[in-house]
């Protein structure tokens, strides 16, 4: 079962896609919230993601200039290190502008540092959760990345 934070990431992706599809929908985000309720997300999950999304709304309304060229960056070790679902998640986060190029790089570095055979989508969601919902200092660090249960990696 997914935890609250990872569901919040799914909601953020939904909202980012909602706005990307038609920016005139921004004034009617409440419709997206209704859709999310119908999809079975709880009020707490929606509130957490919605507040995060609103605080960064201008970022989603301007064209995404900074991309890390994920395909080129992962060429050669994508299939070896990431499941198709986890790679798709990275691509979607970049394409929707939820994470910028630097954040994508941090996410990839931290996931590879775990030393797992194949990085699964749940692992990336856990790391993305820490990245999105923590203070800005974590984005600047390249070591001592905190896992969701406060273990040091």
Instruction: Estimate nothing, just give the exact number of structural domains.
Output: 2
Rg computed from alpha carbons, rounded to a whole number of angstroms: 15 Å
Annotation, overall tally of beta strands:
0
Strand content: under 5%
Relative helix content: 55-70%
Mean pLDDT: 79
- The geometry reads as globular
SSE ordering: HHHHHHHHHH
Count of discrete alpha- or pi-helical segments spanning 4 or more residues: 10
- Runs in which pLDDT lies below 50 for 5 or more consecutive residues are 142-153
Helix/strand-derived category reads mainly alpha
Distance between the first and last residues' Cα: 23 Å
Largest sheet: none
């Amino acid at each position: 079962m997914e935890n609250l934070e990872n569901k919040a990431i799914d909601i953020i992706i939904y909202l980012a896609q909602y706005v990307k599809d038609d920016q005139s929908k921004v004034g009617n985000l409440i419709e997206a919230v209704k859709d999310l309720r119908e999809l079975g997300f709880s009020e707490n999950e929606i509130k957490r993601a919605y507040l995060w999304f609103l605080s960064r709304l201008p970022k989603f309304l301007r064209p995404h200039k900074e991309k890390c060229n994920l395909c080129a960056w992962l060429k050669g070790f994508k299939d070896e290190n990431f499941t198709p679902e986890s790679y798709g998640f990275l691509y979607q986060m970049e394409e929707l502008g939820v994470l910028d190029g630097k954040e994508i790089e941090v996410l990839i570095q931290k996931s590879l540092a775990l030393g797992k055979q194949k990085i699964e989508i749940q692992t990336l969601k856990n790391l993305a959760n820490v990245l999105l919902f923590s203070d800005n200092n974590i984005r600047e660090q390249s070591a001592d990345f905190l896992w969701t249960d406060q273990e040091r990696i």
